[in-house]
């Protein structure tokens, strides 16, 4: 297979054009940049996030020595189609996207609901994944994952003006340092001028159902034993969206996982400690 | 205060002479090497360990850019005195040793029971400690800490020939990689020719009582709130001596702690992954 639309090495997070690839009935929107090479790092996005919610501080840091691919899954942003209401459906769509690019294998860096998709992808299509980085996520049937806390739900339902202010309490700790990191993150993700489309209410509803099904308690999770890939699990000390203990559970139950938990941080700890995170990821991928 | 017996920069783990310093009624045995500078890194040893159980792969890696101090606490190895039977007593002795060297502050790298001593030291003498690295340890009243499991106890009671073979099942995972790392560790700690004395049965009994008192369940541990120092918590995925969940608890309850858990590893994960561990420690100390 050949790689379509190989990137210009000079592109960055903010300049890489949005490209499109057909896979079956769907058109996937994606951006691709960095040092060409295999396997590239595929980023899988969180709930309510599109191409513009990835952090350029992380993607550009990785792009200095790796090829980076960001994409909108089916029904998200500029990608077409109806979003599936299961994690399994989202993982199957992700595999179709990867194959449509002509790639045989990717490293995966996935956040939150994206980390659930990544686990499912690694368990069901193991050869498609080389290494896995799971940030702010949890296993099937993890602790307090079937529904968000009332506090967390409120962050997705009360109006923020502008709307992206919602990401500060969702992703960052309440300390002065956490709030400052949140403002810096917003500044970074607002910098790109050529913007992706918002996630629709229909897609958000389907994805919320998918995450809830994944989070139902008392599910078997022997699927984790099939993920023999090297895994780096990362979270903040107090994740208000997917409780931090779920990252510990992932480390304990995956056969080959390393865990990093940062102090004074929340669901987006990797945005808050992006320099340390990028260095740790690169060391993990290069190992 | 002046620093006594400053080391020769050319000394290494295996060549640094054993030195002695008086503090009150006790004589403390210690070794000191590396790049002179403040604060030095003070290593606090595990149960049944003496000066020769520190890992030269770690101490020499740190010594390239830090000053390293290894010591025998009261009643251990070549140090004199009767070992106290509380962690508080061991922490008070540690403080006396540090002050006897004329040091105002140290970074502390502590393992297992040594990590309990380090927590107590940081909580009661906070200005004496700059940063804290806690490996394979747990908080007061942690999970399953009041006594070891029958399996773990057996490792300390069945005869190994030679005796230091006991450290392989205590410190390393049972996998092929873990066992190979254990053999490499034994080779490293056997290399020094000028050996310390074994830990006596009386000292082992006193220290076992101290660790059990620390581990009694249902104790308050608000002392952790007083440890506002930057802390790096490290453990293996399956610590058979102090269950790994206790490292997660430390991260969750300390105000400013980062956690790293390695895959396929046990109580001595830092020995098994000494290169990664030393790099992480140096980054943490330099930060």
From TrEMBL, chains A, B:
GO terms for biological process: acylglycerol catabolic process. SUPFAM superfamilies: alpha/beta-Hydrolases. It comes from Gryllotalpicola protaetiae. Keywords: Hydrolase. It comes from the Bacteria. InterPro entries: AB_hydrolase_1, AB_hydrolase_fold, AB_hydrolase_sf. GO terms for cellular component: membrane. PANTHER family: MONOACYLGLYCEROL LIPASE, MONOACYLGLYCEROL LIPASE ABHD6. The keyword Hydrolase applies. GO terms for molecular function: monoacylglycerol lipase activity. It holds the Pfam family Abhydrolase_1. Residues 39-271 form the AB hydrolase-1 domain. This is Alpha/beta hydrolase. The keyword Hydrolase applies.
């Amino acid at each position: 297979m050949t790689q379509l639309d190989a990137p210009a090495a000079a592109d960055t997070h903010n300049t890489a054009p949005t490209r499109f690839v057909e896979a079956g009935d769907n058109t996937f929107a994606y951006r691709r940049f960095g040092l060409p090479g295999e396997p590239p790092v595929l980023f899988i996005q969180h709930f309510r996030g599109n191409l513009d919610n990835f952090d350029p501080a992380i993607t550009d840091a990785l792009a200095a020595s790796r090829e980076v691919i960001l994409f909108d899954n089916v029904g998200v942003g500029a990608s077409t189609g109806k979003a599936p209401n299961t994690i399994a459906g989202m993982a199957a769509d992700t595999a179709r996207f990867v194959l449509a690019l002509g790639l045989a294998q990717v490293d995966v860096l996935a956040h939150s609901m994206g980390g659930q998709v990544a686990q499912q992808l690694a368990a069901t299509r193991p050869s498609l994944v080389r290494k896995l980085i799971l940030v702010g996520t949890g296993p099937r049937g993890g602790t307090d994952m079937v529904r968000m806390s009332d506090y967390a739900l409120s962050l997705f339902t009360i109006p923020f003006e502008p709307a992206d202010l919602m990401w500060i309490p969702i992703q960052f700790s309440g300390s002065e340092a956490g709030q400052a990191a949140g403002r810096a993150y917003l500044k970074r993700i607002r910098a790109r001028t050529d913007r992706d489309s918002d996630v629709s209410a229909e897609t958000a509803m389907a994805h919320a159902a998918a995450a809830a099904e994944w989070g139902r308690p008392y599910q078997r999770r022997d699927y984790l034993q099939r993920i023999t890939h090297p895994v780096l699990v990362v979270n903040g000390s107090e994740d208000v969206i997917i409780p931090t203990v779920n990252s510990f559970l992932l480390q304990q139950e995956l056969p080959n996982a390393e865990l990093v938990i940062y102090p004074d941080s929340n669901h987006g700890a990797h945005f808050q400690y992006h320099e340390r995170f990028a260095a740790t990821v690169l060391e993990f991928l290069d190992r």
